[in-house]
Amino acid sequence: MSETIFSVVHKDASSKARTGIIQLPHGPVETPVFMPVGTNGTVKAITVDDLHEIGFQIILSNTYHLYLRPGTGVIDAAGGLHRFIHWDKNILTDSGGFQVFSLAPFRKITEGGAKFRSHIDGSYHLLSPERVVEIQSILGSDIQMQLDVCTSYGTNYKDAEKALIITDKWLKRAKSAWEAVTDDGIYQGKLFAIVQGNFYKDLRQRSAELVVAADTPGIAIGGLSVGEPFEVFTEYLQYTTALLPEHKPRYVMGIGTPEFILEAIEQGVDMFDCVFPTRTGRNGLLFTRQGPITIKKGKYEYDFNPIDEECTCKVCRNYSRSYLRHLYRTGEILSSILASYHNLYFLHDLVRSARRAIQENRYTSFKKDFLYSYKSGTSKNE
Amino acid sequence: MSETIFSVVHKDASSKARTGIIQLPHGPVETPVFMPVGTNGTVKAITVDDLHEIGFQIILSNTYHLYLRPGTGVIDAAGGLHRFIHWDKNILTDSGGFQVFSLAPFRKITEGGAKFRSHIDGSYHLLSPERVVEIQSILGSDIQMQLDVCTSYGTNYKDAEKALIITDKWLKRAKSAWEAVTDDGIYQGKLFAIVQGNFYKDLRQRSAELVVAADTPGIAIGGLSVGEPFEVFTEYLQYTTALLPEHKPRYVMGIGTPEFILEAIEQGVDMFDCVFPTRTGRNGLLFTRQGPITIKKGKYEYDFNPIDEECTCKVCRNYSRSYLRHLYRTGEILSSILASYHNLYFLHDLVRSARRAIQENRYTSFKKDFLYSYKSGTSKNE
Predict the structure, then answer these.
(1) Which of A99, A119, A303, A333 should one mutate to test binding to chain B, selecting the residue with the greatest count of B CBs within 10 A?
(2) What b/e readout covers A111-137, taking b as 16+ CB neighbours within 10 angstroms?
(3) Can you tell me the distance from the alpha carbon of A297 to that of A293, in angstroms, rounded to the nearest whole number?
(4) How far apart are CA A357 and CA A361, in angstroms?
(5) Closest among A172, A167, A122 to A148, alpha carbons compared
(6) pTM higher than 0.90, yes or no?
């Protein structure tokens, strides 16, 4: 059996939610945890000092992007990604598979791997399961993801099954490669397998069984939050999570709104990431406990209140909605800096509150109360 | 005689350079001083925490921009510019005159004032000398500038003289308005007059005499560093500075390169501002003691040294040229953040070193040594 990196600390009495701790090479990570995304080796518009200040113990970065630019040669010579970007806590890297599907102008999937053209300079590349493990070990990722075949919402059964079969073959190869690369104990990153199966329950079950059998340190649920209705997301999240063992961390990729995060936590998911808080922040959408607000609106011109009265972040302590609206309208970089900081702080705080609610066996009412205010507040009246 | 806000602390034995202290409503300012520019109420890509960390005691902001957006109504309701932008040290605002000349798509100068169209929405506005004083007092500027008529390098004698005459009339009106607005002691900002006269020595002299007679707390030298050759800049700077009284702070507007700053200090100038360090930083030009470097160049791909070995700023302590090149090439906002921070820190440190050299009567050799390295170093070999 693979090494145990996860311990459940407390299970909520009112739901499947749980708190836990993941032990990783760059320190422990308390779960449930939201991981901000640093695609190119920086969380956009945020310094590592700010990440420390907010309290993040892990961030995500993108193998596809870093592999293409600056390239693994540069990061290897720098002594790994942590040193390159000056971040001494944990880094999870994705496999690059999703970006091959969403960004590359050309791609061809064979059993060998994913051949694609770079969206930057058009050059050809092949990412095999083994190469992806190697790249992530050069990066020094604390958690690395297997290469998988992504399918979109609406994919037919046959294609979804084909993707599942290749993903499973790639998992076995990834695991062998990962065992080889960690054999000497110098690189200690943990491999996560990915459950696929699109929106077909028998395929989800089959994929989950294969993933469980592969016995990697952690398990991700892929192919959710890809455009399906919220109810479908919930249904498949619940269905898939129930197929996974209790003692391994569960990671749902690409969810970043309070609604999706709170739902995932309720189903017993431990980890999630998304560009949503930073991307929408740069576009002037700011989280509040009464729902998100669009800061450019005229109603905030003379509004000298903080973004969120209850928020204790430095943006809310020091700046008014009026000033933030002004920064957004004048296109100032400080607008992106402050909005990203606040949105990340808000989500980090939400997840911390969720952890506390789980400890106190009141997660269901916590979630209900938060979403009642979040969905009925300012955003409805804007 | 007007109130004294400036005291000379030490005069360099080898040049006209001097150290001093300006007493302002938001604390003392040690001179010589470089003031970063926060056009829209933020120094671009820099937080106020960073400004404090570097050690700035005064920043500049632009009346023209703030008057148009968010408008004086908003800043007034916010309780002034300091509270609006959350900056508790000093702010100098320009008069808006220069922006009317450089940005407005239409402008007409009469004795009454400068009529112009907004570059943002095309609306018509009139800035009179009195209105400009009023706006700056609403902003709560610690130093406010009189409205003046700017002329470009190459303006003929007659037009330069005409501009000088109007500028003088506006000065007298500005001074009356400023005396009225400070009469109750609530607003305590200091008015600076501006010497014009283009590149005609007799006009410079006439303007200087009028300015000296007006007896404002401080004096600016306008119309320099507007595209003239360095030798012409030096000649007119030297000529004009010699016409000014010793006991008032001297401010040269719009200079931000080490060469121009060190030259100005040598001529006894106390204050300067420029967007240069932040604007060029955003464009990937980074100051080093061996001259500026263009970070995007291929030679920095595997360069894991800091921007400047001798620099003690947090960017140089924590990040490599290789990483900064990567951030620049990927268009990351962090590139602008780190480059702006380093360039401002570098100039602040340069001016602090200049102050120390003046105290120790070795300014001339300090300047010579710095420029020898700066001009013969990396930038030449890039």
Answers:
(1) A333
(2) eebbbbbbbeeeeebebbbbbbbbbbb
(3) 9
(4) 6
(5) A167
(6) yes
Beta strands in chain B (DSSP E): 6-11, 18-24, 27-31, 33-36, 58-61, 90-93, 106-110, 113-117, 124-127, 143-145, 190-195, 218-221, 250-252, 271-274, 285-286, 293-294
Q: Which of B46, B69, B333 sits opposite A336 (nearest CB)?
A: B333
Cβ–Cβ below 8 Å for B74 and A332: no
Tell me the CB-side half-sphere exposure of residue B216, using CA atoms within 13 A: 31
Q: Which of B131, B110, B109, B111 is nearest to B64 (CA)?
A: B131
Supply the Cα-derived Rg of chain A in whole angstroms: 21
pLDDT in single tens digits along all 382 residues of chain A: 567 999 999 999 999 999 999 999 999 999 999 999 999 999 999 999 999 999 999 999 999 999 999 999 999 999 999 999 999 999 999 998 888 888 888 899 999 999 999 999 999 999 999 999 999 999 999 999 999 999 999 999 999 999 999 999 999 999 999 999 999 999 999 999 999 999 999 999 999 999 999 999 999 999 998 889 999 999 999 999 999 999 999 999 999 999 999 999 999 999 999 999 999 999 999 999 999 999 999 999 999 999 999 999 999 999 999 999 999 999 999 999 999 999 999 999 999 999 999 999 999 999 999 999 999 875 555 6
Whether the Cβ atoms of residue B178 and residue B133 lie closer than 8 Å to each other = yes
| Rounded distance between C-alpha atoms, residue B16 and residue B30, angstroms | 17
Structure tokens, A2: 């693979």
Cis bond before residue B28 (omega within 30° of 0): no
Domains of chain B (ranges plus CATH)?
Answer: 26-95+132-271 (3.20.20.105), 281-376 (no CATH)
Tell me phi and psi for residue A220, to 5 degrees.
-110, 150
CB B194 within 8 A of CB B211: yes
Count the helices and strands in chain A (H runs, E runs).
16, 16
Q: What is the full DSSP assignment across A168-191? A: HHHHHHHHHHHHHHTTTSS---EE
β-bridge mates for residue A126, sequence order: A115
- ipTM reported for the complex, 2 dp: 0.97
Task: Count CB neighbours of B235 within 10 A.
Answer: 14
Question: Which residue is listed with tokens 């120094």?
Answer: B43
Q: Cβ of A323 and B46 within 8 Å?
A: no
Is B332 in contact with A42 (Cβ distance < 8 A)?
yes
Cβ-contact B58, B29 below 8 angstroms: yes
Helix (H) or strand (E) holding A90: strand A90-93
- In angstroms, what CA-CA distances link B192 with B147, B186, B271? 10, 19, 12
Q: Is B331 annotated as a binding residue?
A: no
Residue A223 marked as a ligand binder: yes
Q: What is the CA radius of gyration of chain B?
A: 21
User: Which one-letter DSSP state was computed for residue B215?
Assistant: T
Looking at chain B, which residue has its C-alpha nearest residue A38?
B332
Strand partners, B11: B18
**Mutate which of B37, B39, B42, B48 to test chain A, going by most A C-beta atoms within 10 A?**
B42
The rounded distance, in Å, linking the Cα atoms of B181 and B179 is 6
Pull the structure tokens for residue A66. 């870093």
Q: Under an 8 A CB cutoff, do B84 and A320 touch?
A: yes
Number of Cβ within 10 Å of residue B125's Cβ equals 18
Query: Dihedral sign, CA of B149, B154, B159, B164?
Result: positive
Place of tokens 């820190």: B345
Tell me the CA end-to-end span of chain A in Å, nearest whole number.
54
Euclidean distance between CA atoms B186 and A176, whole angstroms = 75
